């Protein structure tokens, strides 16, 4: 819904491992990874993050809560790279996305509230964009179905050179088989950019319950390398050099204060996902000057 609100105001308005985006949807959490994932990125101006941005975002949550809007979204705040927040909204199809946008447009009270929220939020932003991704089941590995107890998110972004998708597929097949064998609880979900980013852009997404899981990274990688063997590792290096144009890894922390999560998340872990009374009060206080 966060992404949809950005669309409505004019489209002026990411891992070396991966975000195993779990299941959330309208009304009731769906099973399995989202087929369509809309990601809105907000790059915050220096000094405008933290409490100021939290207050601005609370206006969106307040508007959709009052409207009892069924489409939910989850926010994640950058712990590396430029100051920014990602907002993830899942859909089962492009048709479902269209219907959500259309319904929001027709709801004049909600649309007006989102317009006001966007205006206030825009004052804090350096820039923003919106990108759309499609789930790639073949490249994914045991994606988890519940992220309500997750706290961190690793995102590995890779861009594949045009005309080198066969090498890319072979590279992933080799690495995935070795990782699956070496790390029994390893998991990730893969999404391919369809709109907004260059063709050949892939997101490997892995959610983490705690930062302690990050400490296991070198150990898991070592086990995977051992499973591959020297010859296979050499082959993977050659394939990577041949097909990958660029890649980067970033770490994010889920941000409940800027999320409009499904009820299932709140019920599963209320201490983390439930909006605190203080935040609610701040949200109401923030809205009064805007409404006058």
Give a written overview of the molecule.
The chain has 292 residues and is an alpha+beta fold. It has a single domain, classed as 2-Layer Sandwich (Alpha-Beta Plaits), CATH 3.30.70. The chain is built from 9 helices and 8 strands. It has helices at 2-8, 51-66, 94-106, 108-122, 165-182, 217-243, 263-268, 270-273, 277-291; strands at residues 36-44, 74-78, 84-91, 125-135, 152-160, 189-195, 201-208, 244-254. It has an 8-stranded antiparallel β-barrel. Helix 1 crosses helix 3 (94-106) and helix 2 (51-66) packs across helix 9 (277-291). It is globular. It starts with a helix and ends with a helix. Mean pLDDT is 87; it is low at 3-30 and 278-292.
Short account of what is shown:
The protein has 292 residues and is an alpha+beta fold. It is built from 9 helices and 8 strands.
Query: Cα-atom Rg, whole angstroms?
Result: 20 Å
> Unreliable runs, pLDDT <50, ≥5 residues?
3-30, 278-292
Mean pLDDT figure: 87
Q: Provide the β-strand percentage band.
A: 15-25%
Instruction: Look up the CATH topology.
Output: Alpha-Beta Plaits
The description of the largest β-sheet is: 8 strands, antiparallel, barrel
Number of domains: 1
Which percent range fits the helix content? 40-55%
Structural class per helix/strand content?
alpha+beta
| CATH second-level architecture | 2-Layer Sandwich
Quote the distance from N terminus to C terminus: 26 Å
Q: How many DSSP helices?
A: 9
Top-tier CATH class: Alpha Beta
- The topology string of helices and strands comes to HEHEEHHEEHEEHEHHH
* Strand neighbour order, sheet with most strands: 1-3-2-8-5-7-6-4
Q: What is the general shape?
A: globular
